[in-house]
Amino acid sequence: MAAVATLVRRAKDYVQTKEFREYLTSTHFWGPVANWGLPLAAFKDMRASPEIISGRMTTALIFYSLAFMRFAYRVQPRNLLLMACHGANVVAQSIQGTRCVLYHFGSIGMSTPADPRDLSATSSSQASAAPASRSAE
Length: 137
What we know:
By secondary structure, this protein is an all-alpha fold.
């Protein structure tokens, strides 16, 4: 418990420093805050139909975020907030890209009926067809 109190006290002391106030007024803070709109929008769109996903835009956003992740790590001082933002965007856009590919090109080796009732109708017709074909032999 004492460790938590010490951590809270140190955090409070840091927030009151001039260095922290300068960070809050810099582009190292506000740039990533503004960029969080990209992954948040992608995560929100995961509930929407995959027919609205643009494969080209999703691919462009993946490469854009990969490039800026590298930039955020290489710039001095390192901007880990920007790197986290673009890392989240790569994950979100990759999921969206997978949804787009599966929607437009289907899944390999898997067939999923549009209606669960179709599955039962298909399996019952196959089951009734199997004995008939055996009796014909």
